[in-house]
Amino acid sequence: MSLVVTGATGHLGRLVVAALLERGVPAAEVVALGRDEARLAELDALGVTTRRVDYADADALSDALAGADRVLLISGSEVGQRLAQHENVIAAARAAGVGLLAYTSIANADTSTMILAAEHRATEEAVVASGLPHTFLRNSWYTENYTGQLATYAEHGTVLGAAGDGRVSAATRADYAEAAAAALLLDQPRRVYELGGAAFSLKELATTVGDVLGKDVTYTDLPADELTRVLVGAGLPEGYAAVLADADLGLGRGDLHVEPTDLEALLGRPATSLADAVRAAAAPRG
Ligand SMILES: NC(=O)c1ccc[n+]([C@@H]2O[C@H](COP(=O)([O-])OP(=O)(O)OC[C@H]3O[C@@H](n4cnc5c(N)ncnc54)[C@H](OP(=O)(O)O)[C@@H]3O)[C@@H](O)[C@H]2O)c1
After folding, report:
1. What residues contact residue 250 under an 8 Å CB cut-off, 6+ apart?
2. Residue 284: band (very low, low, confident or very high) from pLDDT cuts 50, 70, 90
3. Where is the NAD(P)-binding domain (predicted)?
């Protein structure tokens, strides 16, 4: 069986390739796509086949997917350009007649009103329209969106957000990757998996971070436009800052809330807890 993973050079994709190999898939059956030469070389070293392909290059995508049995389309990172890019992958998968197209979408993609959800929803619609057998892996937030900011939380003694009391079902990339590998290997995966871990509010995040770091950390809820200004002040481009603030509003409305049942069913174990993820991120690197 030939399994193609797009975005394999990214944080999630590398973990998916590793999870497939850990599950016993022979390296010769895995094809990893991306653009970054250095990361493709790291994947080469694992024995998988690598191809340097840009989502904009429809011909290269057709070549890369020819003969594929199953494809995991990991959503691209260039917000605003993703639908056209994803459509190229879907067309190549259709031309190859793949037996399964799996797509990493966003939690509650069909109802979410977050700006970020629009391209995912449109991609899901394009996948359905292709007529290909498919599965949607609707990932909630990555826990790393928060654990990557531990130093900032510690420095300022606060977690800033615009999510109110909303709860987010964040899970680690490693858990999402393992779940994606498991779904890709099922005979007949479900059409939709709503994936996320045990939900927490940003107030609970602050408490957990404070407990693990042994510091006072509180949650400060801001109006979305003020959060945008703070993020711009911290160096983020204005458009991206506004999208992140909008995502917090979506979090407040429950757009990123799902039950952990689908993730845990694919994992066959409980999802990694927030406290464990924060402890791992805070641990000194050896
Ligand atoms: N749920 C969440 O909290 C969350 C947070 C952030 C992102 N996401 C979504 O989840 C995806 C995977 O997350 P991640 O952490 O692995 O992101 P990442 O590390 O930024 O990886 C993105 C991957 O997409 C590839 N890519 C982007 N544009 C491409 C293009 N034009 N042609 C070919 N490949 C392209 C990149 O390839 P190269 O690096 O080789 O160019 C890379 O492999 C993201 O792309 C984004 O859609 C979700």
Report:
1. 112, 113, 114, 116, 117, 256
2. confident
3. 7-184
